[in-house]
From TrEMBL:
It comes from the Bacteria. The chain crosses the membrane at residues 43-63, 70-87, 107-128, 149-167, 179-197. The keyword Cell membrane does not apply. This is DUF3159 domain-containing protein. It comes from Kutzneria albida DSM 43870. Keywords: Membrane, Transmembrane, Transmembrane helix. It holds the Pfam family DUF3159.
Length: 214
């Protein structure tokens, strides 16, 4: 396996926490929808089951060595989503936090491109131990910038789909979309993101592990 192939596997495949993190994050939403359906559309029971699933997921993550801070953040997000739904009395609002967070994430990726600190480059730089050295290479900055814009498309898609389903109060469809647009969409975006990155780099560039310096 070449350095570039290795970099692809250890960066894009682990971006945003990888498959385990993405799947773990969907389980409380599945629990909420299942609880809501099985208890005659009770938001209270749906929220309770979501919190229970979230706590169980958190315990499993701690046992497998995940950072406590990351586990607490995940549980806080579930608790916040449940609180919003309980406060408004609208089950679809359980997904409102997810909708807002995806909008914020998409905006962050676009802004990072605009200020020439593309987030794909920031994450890859940390993962391969380069920190910010890649920013001294104009070709890498350009390639990471374009890859960042492509990667941001998934957030736009989520906002559109979640937004429409939330507006229609489609609770079950929101639960299905929450699962379908987590890890599957992440995997789908790996190909075009990597392709744009590689196409942007000059043919003679040594690769993302070897930034050129002036």
């Amino acid at each position: 396996m070449t350095d570039q192939e290795t970099a692809r596997e250890e960066t894009f495949a682990t971006l945003l926490g990888g498959r385990g993190g993405a799947l773990d994050a969907t389980l409380p939403s599945v629990g909420f929808v299942a609880g809501w359906l099985l208890t005659d559309q009770s938001i209270g029971w749906g929220a309770a089951i979501a919190l229970g699933v979230g706590a169980a997921v958190g315990l499993v993550r701690v046992l497998r060595g995940d950072r406590i801070r990351a586990v607490l953040v995940g549980m806080f997000v579930v608790a916040l989503a449940a609180t919003v739904a309980l406060y408004t009395g609208r089950a679809a609002d359980f997904f409102l936090v997810q909708l807002v967070s995806n909008a914020a994430s998409g905006m962050a990726f676009v802004v990072s491109w605009a200020i020439r600190w593309p987030l794909v480059g920031v994450v890859v730089g940390v993962l391969v131990g380069q920190k910010a050295r890649w920013r001294r290479d104009p070709d890498l900055v350009r390639a990471y910038g374009r890859a960042t814009l492509v990667y941001a498309v998934q957030y736009v898609l989520r906002v559109i789909v979640f937004g429409l389903l939330w507006w229609q109060d489609a609770v079950v469809a929101l639960g299905v979309a929450r699962v379908a647009m987590s890890w599957p969409l992440f995997v789908l975006m790996l190909g075009p993101t990597w392709w744009v990155f590689r196409r942007t780099l000059p043919a003679d560039h040594p690769g993302l592990r070897h930034p050129r310096t002036a």
